[in-house]
Write a structure and sequence with these properties.
Bound molecules: zinc ion
Mean pLDDT: 95
Radius of gyration: 19 Å
Strand content: 15-25%
Number of strands: 9
Strand order of the largest sheet: 3-5-6-7-8-9
Distance between the termini: 20 Å
Low-confidence stretches: none
Length: about 350
């Protein structure tokens, strides 16, 4: 990345009201068939323009192409029965209705490649594309076939690798795997979750990232955060293994959280997407607040490896609020850029 402190977002951005109900997570599409395809493409044009105007350097689809960051991917796979919905507890925290794995899983065709191609045609800026991580996928379905989380995650890792290679081939610059489950099932992440992630990125030449967060700003998550104590130690336990992995970039939650900045010392050498925007508040950060978070991170991260980012996705926020937060991110990054270059 040529620019110093390139800004990006962790994932989702609010959808336009004509595509899906706003301020609601996982809200169903308002369009269908050909209209939905065209509607998603228009949403991609809009989100790209909004990111560009806010000064975001590494753009994304803002997840305009998916209803849910995990199940939309799962729904395209063979071996999954979409009609057989089961209610399971996700991340040990909240109930969700999810599809059932009924046989060997495979990917009969690419899932996001056409959407990614469309976005690629619209811009020369670097694009980051997010895929669900294998462990988080396993935690977002009911498995009636493998009966082994580890085995199923390994199969998903192989499928994700196929998808990632196609995304790389059409010119996606960074492929990010979302693994919020790592922060909850830390022992399993260290035992086999990170190995599955390594399988998912095998042979990729483009940059790879893993996003590990404390979730969207929904009630179940904010309640959970209250139980995590004065200092959140999850990253402390995960980062040593991630530091040794082949993943290039670690995306984590910082601003407004109880994550101690010194955990960044444990992933020295990696590029770090530092969450400098809280997605769980309706208050827009000031540029100076963003700058303070970035300065704190700079104590542990070399400037050329620091990527200012949001803590998580912003799909549940109002569109205007999300745009204001992106502007604040860019303005805060600009303050620190000037300091570094002075
Ligand atoms: Zn997240």
């Amino acid at each position: 990345m040529k620019i110093l402190l390139p800004t990006s977002t962790a994932g989702s951005l609010p959808k336009p009201s004509w595509l899906a109900e706003t301020k609601k997570l996982w809200s169903p599409w308002k369009l269908a068939g050909e209209e939905l395809i065209k509607g998603k493409q228009d949403a991609l044009r809009v989100t790209l323009q909004e990111q560009r105007q806010a000064g975001i350097d590494i753009v994304s689809d803002g997840e305009q192409t998916r209803q849910h960051f995990v199940t939309t991917f799962i729904e395209h796979l063979d071996g999954v029965d979409l009609e057989q919905r089961k209610t399971v507890k996700i991340r040990n925290r909240y109930d969700a209705s999810v599809p059932t794995v009924v046989g060997a899983v495979s990917r009969p065709h690419s899932v996001f490649v056409e959407d990614a191609k469309f976005l690629r045609k619209q811009t020369d800026q670097p694009i980051k594309w997010a895929l669900p991580g294998p462990m988080t996928m396993v935690d977002t379905l009911y498995d009636a076939h493998y009966k082994s989380k580890q085995e199923l995650a390994w199969e998903f890792a192989k499928i994700l690798n196929q998808e990632a290679k196609e995304l790389e081939a059409i010119g996606i610059d960074i492929i990010q795997f979302d693994e919020p489950a790592f922060n909850v099932f830390i022992d399993e992440a260290n035992d086999w979750g990170i190995d599955c992630l390594e399988r998912a990125i095998e042979g990729l030449q483009c940059e790879t990232a893993v996003h590990v967060c404390y979730g969207y700003g929904i009630k179940a998550n904010t309640e959970w955060k209250k139980t995590l104590g004065a200092e959140w130690r999850q990253y402390d336990l995960l980062f040593p293994r991630l530091q040794q992995s082949n993943i290039d970039i670690i995306s984590l939650e910082c601003h407004g959280s109880r994550v101690p900045f010194k955990v960044l010392d444990r992933v020295r050498g990696k590029k770090i997407m530092v969450g400098a925007i809280d997605v769980a508040t309706n208050t827009v950060e000031t540029p100076e607040e963003v700058a303070t978070t970035l300065r704190n991170a700079l104590k542990y991260v070399d400037a050329d490896k620091l990527y200012p980012c949001t803590n998580c996705g912003m799909a549940p926020l109002s569109r205007d609020l999300a745009i204001e937060k992106l502007r604040a991110l860019n303005a805060g990054a600009e303050i620190v850029r000037r300091e570094l270059l002075a």
